[in-house]
Amino acid sequence: MPDIENFDTLILGSGQGGKLLAWHLARSGQKVAVVERRWVGGSCPAVACLPSKNEIWSARIAHLVQHAAEFGTATGPVSVDMAAVRRRKQAMVDREIAFHLGAYKASGAELIMGEGRFIGPKTIEVSLNDGGQRRLSGNQVVVNVGSHAAIPDIPGLPAARAMTHIEALELDYLPSHLIVLGGGYVGIEMAQAYRRFGSRVTIIEPSQRLMGREDADVAEEMQRILVSEGIEVVLGARPTQVRGLSGDAVVVEIHTDAGNRTVEGSDLLVAAGRVPNTADIGLEKTGVELDDRGFIRVNERLETTEGGVWAIGECAGSPQFTHVSVDDFRIVRDNMAGGNRRTDARQIPYVMFTDPPLARVGMSEGEAQRLGIAYRVATLPMGNVLRTEATEETQGFMKAVVSANDDRILGFTMIGSEAGEVMAVVQTAMMAGLPYTELREAVIVHLTIAEGLGPLFAGIPPLR
Ligand SMILES: Cc1cc2nc3c(=O)[nH]c(=O)nc-3n(C[C@H](O)[C@H](O)[C@H](O)COP(=O)(O)OP(=O)(O)OC[C@H]3O[C@@H](n4cnc5c(N)ncnc54)[C@H](O)[C@@H]3O)c2cc1C
Ligand SMILES: NC(=O)c1ccc[n+]([C@@H]2O[C@H](COP(=O)([O-])OP(=O)(O)OC[C@H]3O[C@@H](n4cnc5c(N)ncnc54)[C@H](O)[C@@H]3O)[C@@H](O)[C@H]2O)c1
């Protein structure tokens, strides 16, 4: 058995927050090791955020070129080369890997490539990817192992060898008919991209609406946009059986209130949520407890149930976004240094990178209703934002929720061009505690999309 090597800080999984913590602590003089089994830099730059947005951008180019004549540019026949799309994506991933290796080297943190497993409190055994084993311990230990795609328990699904986002981002051919199980973030982003590349696409979603956490008007508008591009959306549909093989021919049988139906396609993508990577990492040999859904039990300071062991990102049950894992890093960094930063009451903005995108910060109207918070609401169709006269990006709307008791902005949702950038303006106003009237009266540049914030907030009914 190899001797146990001791580190000041030992991090399992090079997730988004964990790697930043490693670089920070190592630069501060600590002896730090990060154990990563597969993706230098974690999933975001390798198989999730960056590669998906890279391919979504390629799909947008395809879409624009296909519609170029409407804007006065004549093109010849348009075709999409998925091998070239994939190559462009892979070149970016390779740049990301090089960047991360450089950052590890510059910081002095050691990146150990191998599968890690706890063999005792604060002690990890690593099966090295290059062969052999190492045993490591940390005075402080951080778990940042992320999650993997959930594979629902549907008869025939394992045999159909459905893709997750990982395989879908590696396709170098165009599926003739892509069936997507799940109408959430991954499903919708990938469905629109593949439709724009030229696939026929069907989304199968068990709930009665897409994007369950959004208001009905928001979900309906997104559905209208997807359907207008030729995507078939089947709601209230529970898959009961899968037959065939993804990449060849697949059949999904679904049960709906209206009866049973069969959807036949060529390729199958599963996008039905995430499962934390906590099942096989030996936590039972430690004092680190899991909750009933398999997430690491943490307090608001991101401390686990074992002293000196912290958890960051999706495995800690944090909302599933890179910027949240990065914020978890800041919390753990400051708490390790004796501070008291907390996860509760932080804003969690997000953007779904469809075209147009969906962005939200703060409360939706439905959340205000569920919490019994008195509110005022205004919406503004994107067609009323003057810039869209020039760009014809008229799909979607802005929606603001404001307190009925004072002028606080409670939430902002937008489907529309530049939604993420416009949302950041509202988020900043919310962080500063500005009343909505300040945005209503602000001098915002003509002819920007953010100019729509004036008329949006002018639509909020006055205080009674
Ligand atoms: C297709 C897709 C697109 C997305 N797009 C966005 C987006 O645009 N914006 C956004 O904010 N979020 C996006 N997300 C979510 C985002 O990717 C995640 O929330 C984020 O990467 C989570 O980071 P994390 O720190 O929890 O862990 P991860 O970044 O997932 O890292 C965990 C790491 O731990 C490693 N690991 C696991 N177990 C072990 C072990 N036993 N030994 C060694 N290593 C191990 C894994 O290999 C992995 O590299 C997307 C997700 C998906 C699936
Ligand atoms: N732009 C972004 O920031 C971005 C992009 C992609 C993913 N993400 C993150 O990753 C997370 C995971 O994404 P996701 O799309 O896998 O999960 P999700 O939770 O967003 O959506 C999963 C969907 O699958 C449906 N579903 C559940 N069981 C099903 C079944 N048996 N058959 C068909 N559908 C089923 C659910 O009803 C739900 O609508 C997201 O919640 C998000 O936090 C973020």
Automatic annotation (TrEMBL):
This is Pyruvate/2-oxoglutarate dehydrogenase complex dihydrolipoamide dehydrogenase (E3) component. Belongs to the class-I pyridine nucleotide-disulfide oxidoreductase family. The keyword tRNA processing does not apply. Keywords: FAD, Flavoprotein, Pyruvate. Its cofactor is FAD. Residues 348-453 form the Pyridine nucleotide-disulphide oxidoreductase dimerisation domain. Pfam families: Pyr_redox_2, Pyr_redox_dim. Residues 7-327 form the FAD/NAD(P)-binding domain. It comes from Rhizobium viscosum (Arthrobacter viscosus). The lineage of its organism: Bacteria, Pseudomonadati, Pseudomonadota, Alphaproteobacteria, Hyphomicrobiales. InterPro entries: FAD/NAD-bd_sf, FAD/NAD-binding_dom, FAD/NAD-linked_Rdtase_dimer_sf, Pyr_nuc-diS_OxRdtase, Pyr_nucl-diS_OxRdtase_dimer.
